[in-house]
Design a protein that fits this description.
The complex is a heterodimer.
Chain A: H1 3-8, H2 11-19, H3 25-43, E1 46-49, H4 51-66, E2 78-82, H5 109-116, E3 120-125, E4 145-146, E5 149-153, H6 159-166, E6 172-177, H7 183-189, E7 192-195, E8 215-220, H8 223-233, H9 251-264, E9 273-277, H10 279-282, H11 287-302, E10 306-310, H12 318-333, H13 352-363, H14 366-378, H15 385-408, E11 411-415, H16 431-435, H17 442-447, E12 451-458, E13 464-470, H18 476-490
Parallel strand pairs in A: 2-3, 2-6, 9-10, 9-11
Antiparallel strand pairs in A: 1-3, 4-5, 6-8, 7-8, 7-12, 11-13, 12-13
Helix pairs in contact in A: 3-4, 6-7, 8-9, 8-18, 9-18, 12-14, 12-15
Chain B: H1 4-13, H2 20-37, H3 72-76, E1 83-84, E2 87-88
Antiparallel strand pairs in B: 1-2
Amino acid sequence: MQNLEITNLSALELAEKIRNKEITAVEAVTAYLNVTEKKDKDINAFITVCHKEALAAAQEIDAKIAKKKKLGLLAGVPYAAKDIFATAGIESTGGSRILKGYKPPADATAIARLKEAGAILIGKTNCDEFAMGASGEHSAYGATKNPHNLKCVSGGSSSGSAAAVAANMCAFAIGTDTGGSIRQPAALCGVVGLKVTYGRISRAGVFPLASSIDTIGPLTKNVCDAALVLGVLAGQDKYDHTTLAAEVPNYLKSINKSSALSESKKKPLQNIKIGLPKECFESKISADIRDNVNKVIVNLEKLGAKVSECSLPYMKYSIPVYYIVVPSEASANLERFDGIRFGLTSDDDSSLIDFYIKNRSKGFGDEVKRRIMIGTYTLSAGYYDAYYKKAMQVRTLICEDFKKAFTKFDALIMPTTPNTAWEIGKKLNDPLSEYLEDMFTAPANLAGLPAISIPSGFGQNKLPLGIQFIGPQFGEEIVFKIGSVYELSKS
Amino acid sequence: MLTQEEIKKLALLARLEFTPGELKKFGSQLSNILDYVAQLSEVPTENVEPTSQVTGLENVLREDEVLRRFTREEILSTSNQSKCDGLIKIKPIFDRE
């Protein structure tokens, strides 16, 4: 098989061909490394490419196949991980200067589980520093460019993961989603992005942003691959006490069921009730996005779904709540970066406090500094009640909105983003306008809900659009079902 | 609007420092963000419980046992500071007086 043919395969197809000895793991890794070498000079999706390690891992898989040993679900499949995941012995920067050169002593649980399943890490992807940003520009290692138009942002913060999947530089990628950091770049780059229920996947070994809402998940070429990777990652972990004991369903099997349904029935979504929050269209969104949502709804109705309007009256407060909760928790989480135990250190030798100040001021970028400052303010004595506590109370109201909606609907539909990708630099000095790009993604984070973004066409400017399906907690299967049926209907 | 003095004080609490140019830029950006999030004050929240945990977990405990995942050398190897007898050397935290 030619390189191009290999890199056009989905993760599921590639895993099957490797298992059936049609392609070797070394061929698969080489094919992806070749594409990366050619394209990544322009896109800047990777901070580190693991040539040597990936080829060595591929040889091991091929040796296992030759000896007819038992193989994991993802044996030989090359993937990329956001640089915010700790990878043993491989530089893990979080997109920050403060961790330049940092090589963690162990793998994050997600990385370990993927390794166990035979997946091969081919590189660490670029991201907004410590996952703070919605453009991919806030990285100490340069902006990630959108593969569909190199003058535009890729979205963020899992910028490199989305761009790497979109440009076929890996079979799938993993990222983190605290307010849309998987779904938003996935939408802007035209790939599938899954945000899971809070606690569904272990976050152990992932640099934390806002602990009460951080999640991790896959970015993939199609819905099926998202289900496949989730099956490997999901489940309780003794190193992350927010993971839940809830049983991990066979996601792939349930998707196969719904695609079988798609083939045999004209209306595979019969009896599925989908709610459209009317507040979506009351917000400032581009005409392209509005038209696209309406088009998708017509399509879903043809497939048998019943789509009707609903209301989430407190959703409009998601961004203000988010920009109190996240900076507050981030300012506490980032206290660990003092320049002593890891990362960058200055040669200031006046006093310990000046030493901390120098390390942190030199090591952190602007967006991180802004959020640390906001968080320090909102958590300080006298302001805690007015900001942090107030935000947590409004968060309760947002959660209740969703709970009410899910008594009537199986899932909700919303655009993933209010706009398509914008020009690099356009929002760099206007943080608020960038924050508002998360208006449709942050609500699911605040309520801990699973949500998927699926490519739904292109705007007038030829840039990708994404449609989002949100399910109740632990409702990954329902968003997969609607998502895969919708995806099949497009092709 | 945050004053320059308030920003300097916050910066010290957060162990950060800014140049005069940055102070000005951050000052107006931070004030804009704080003004924006202040719209929450229009939402009545009397008797509304705050939410910090969404999946209903409470007090997850484990046995208090020592897990040795890493050797001392592995942990020390991530630090760029000078080391002495298996410890990281830092600047004095008390005055010598």
